[in-house]
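[job 4417] fold queue: 2 targets
>>> target A
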Amino acid sequence: MNRPAFSRYDSVRRHQVLIEAATQLFLEVGYSAASMNQLVERAGGSKSSIYAYFKNKEGLFVAVVEDMVRDILFPLHAIDLGSHSLEDNLLNIGNRTLTVLTSHKGLGLSRIVYAESVKLPEVGLAFYQHGPGRAIKELANYLQDLNNSKKITCEDPDSASEFFWGMLLHKPMLEGLCGTRRLLSAQQRKVHVARVVDTFVVSFIENHK
């Protein structure tokens, strides 16, 4: 009797198990010291089965970063943007972003990138392209869509997106990475994001409906 093939659900679940195990591995030992053998010990299976999901260790790290970024950008894809105001959407994504990036996981992965990218520039490039670079592009596309539908006027969505992310992340990330203060509380995040969104709308958005 033939063995049943793994369903897509099984494959997706296995992929997520590997991502979660790899995230913890990278956070504990860093990028350079992490190995596929260690991942097998934690997640089970075999190296060949892991390579079926990820081409190499860099591909695995990219997948970890993409998983984090998907969580951040979820509000831009999962909601009906037409039924929510620009401010509400920006508040949503701002709060979600800070919750993720100033967490132990977010700060830990950022520290790994900063530590490794000098000797392994491909790690820094992969992180930027699949993390901050993608976030900037996604928000710029959203602003352009609002432009096209005449809901706002934003002369330069690309620059506006860069400024939004810069205002949102600069101070909280610096404080978190340098350990100069404890993680932001929910109320502190809310206040910071609201201030950023207000400044952003006044500075970059015209004919706002």
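>>> target B
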Amino acid sequence: MTTAAEAIPTAAETVDISGRAMLVALKISQWTARRLDREISNEVARLHGSDPDQGSFWKRLVPKDNPEHKALVKIVNAARADHYANTLPWTDEGWRLLPTANYLEYSRIMRGHAAAFEAAREAFFDVYWDVIQDARTRLNGLYRESDYPFPSDLRGRFRFALDFSPLPAKGDFRLDLPSAELDRIGAAVEDRVTRATREAMQDAWTRLSDTVGKMRDRLSDPDAIFRDTLVQNVRDLVDTLTRLNLTNDPTLEAMRAKVESDLTRHEPATLREDKDTRKDVATKADEIFREMSAFMERTEQ
């Protein structure tokens, strides 16, 4: 049987991914509900005889336990986590690679987050005046009416949007420049895409390796307590990787399938209760982790 390490090519192959992926940017903005109080910051500095630049006092404008605001924060965090889980790195700030194979699933997930964000935003607006009235008492001398935007202004501070863009290609230039300059620009674009593709696939391997490594570490210790998410995270990842294999790398797919077959067949309760099964899965996880580590070390050389 050929191992992952034995299957490593001696030289990286250039793969045209222009038809296999697009760029996507998740743009979320929200009211921070915090305000720097410079007056109090300076007062504290004077009290302690320190430089005002050494510390700042930030007011929490909405109570930490406000359920409507907590719901918004939870949705934003979940959306960002799913955005990263379902895309791959790209060199430009804010943009991620989205394989076309994962477009439908990614869009379904993000539409759900967008709808939840909108509903949570409206729920927060419904209690906004109550929050302001409560702040008069809660903040007392720290209360400033100017800290709280008018509802019409506040609405504009909440945004949930996705921007899509095609991948740049070497020949996508219609500029009035000398051919030598066009060739130089085209080569730079091609090099950027090549590097980004390599980094994206490395990210996919790293995700798989890290997740298997965590499972190995927890299961190898018979006394270690683990949650159901230990197994579910592996299941979610091997499912997602079927759509994130940007270059259709057969070695990655073979390893993904091996992880799915050997490490996800048992329920968490079984791994907790059956010591022999737990030991067996831990051993397989260790073998897979070592094989992946060897592969990644070879490809980085």
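[job 4417] complete. Note on B: The chain has two domains: 22-166, 193-300.
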